[in-house]
Each structure stands twice: as structure tokens, then as C-alpha cells.
Amino acid sequence: MSKGLFITFEGPDGSGKTTQIQELKKYLEKSGFNAIITREPGGTPIGEKIRQIILDKNNQEMDYVTEALLYAASRAQHVSQVIKPALEQGRMVICDRFMDSSIVYQGYGRKLGDSVRIMNEIAVRDCLPDVTFLLKLNPGIGKARIEEGEQDRLELEKMEYHNEVYRGYIELSKQYPERIICIDAGRSIEEIRIEICKHMDSLLVSNSKR
Predict the structure, then answer these.
(1) Edge-to-edge order in the sheet of strand 92-96
(2) What's the pLDDT at 1?
(3) Which of 60, 16, 11, 67 is nearest to 41 (CA)?
(4) Which is more confident, 46 or 154?
(5) CA-to-CA distance for 173 and 55, rounded, in angstroms?
(6) Are the C-beta atoms of residues 155 and 106 closer than 8 Å to each other?
(7) Would you say domain 6-208 falls under CATH 3.90.550.10?
(8) Each residue's pLDDT tens digit, 71-92
């Protein structure tokens, strides 16, 4: 394989992304692939510093446009320093959140609309996921899974905000049905893992025929 695959995971907070990302990495490595896990915001030293600013509970005065631009800035560095080089080396890149998160959290949740997509298209420079696993879970259930003391600035937002974010995810899944695979995250870890691995098997077969 000359080029790796870019795999992203999306979903409400508390939907189990971290667990399934770790499971998929183990599955890919058992199948003989070189896989890396990364996350957003973050993934690079610069991105991790930006992450601290974005998620800091003390930064309640942050303007919504400032927030969106910080996410895009972290993403631009991430693509340039980590994601593109890894894909060019033929590695599997599994990313916890990517551009879709900005579109739903800032575009839908913050009501910034299409401006979020535009700024992120500049940031990613045509580096888009080959497949996105959207873990669908009622945002109220996901939020309840996270202890209040452990919630970051965005997780502490009111349920109206999180419901709007979830609506954004559903809209995106309808716009990009070939890329975004919806997974019922209300089931057991093993049931979810098996479904994700089946989808990956199909994708790997298709990619090997390129």
C-alpha cells in the first residue's frame, strides 16, 4: 500500500470514541498495518497548547469566532506535521475528532454557519478522511457519563447546545453517506467493535484494489 488511510471518529462527548479507537488500532496492527492514534484539538506540541486554551474552564469569555479559529489553527498544524506525513508513509491514521467536529460544534452549536467549513478547508488543504465513524448516542446519556468535575469548557455547555451539535452530526451523515458510517453507540463495546471492524475490512479490500 503506497498511501495510508485516514480514519476519523466523531460523536457526542461520552459516546465511547476513545475505547473504540484503541480497539481499532489493535485490530489493524494484528492485520499487519502500521497504525497511529492522534487527536483534536491537539496532536502536536503547538496543537496541545491550543487545546489547553480552548478547553480551559476559566476562558468563559472566549468569543465564538476566536474559538473556531483556534480549532482551525490547531488542525492546520496537525495536518502539516502529523497526518499528511504519516499517510505518505503508508500508515493508518486514526484521529479522535477532525473537521466534522468544528462544523457541528461551532457551525451548528455556535451558529457560525458555513464560515466554519470555509476556514477549515483552508486549514486541512484537501486532507480529508477516507472514512468517519460517527458514534450515535443521545447527548444527554453521553454527558451523564462524564463526571461534572472532569468536564471541560465545552462539555459544561447547556443541553440545548449539545442537542444542536447532535443535530449537526445527523445532518452531516445525510450529506456524506459514503464517508460517514453511523454506529449505534448504545450497545456493548464488543458489538460496536465488531461492526467497526467489518466496515474496515471492506474499506481495506477496496483500498488494496486502487
Answers:
(1) 35-39, 92-96, 6-10, 131-136, 180-184
(2) 46
(3) 67
(4) 46
(5) 26
(6) no
(7) no
(8) 999 999 999 999 999 999 999 9
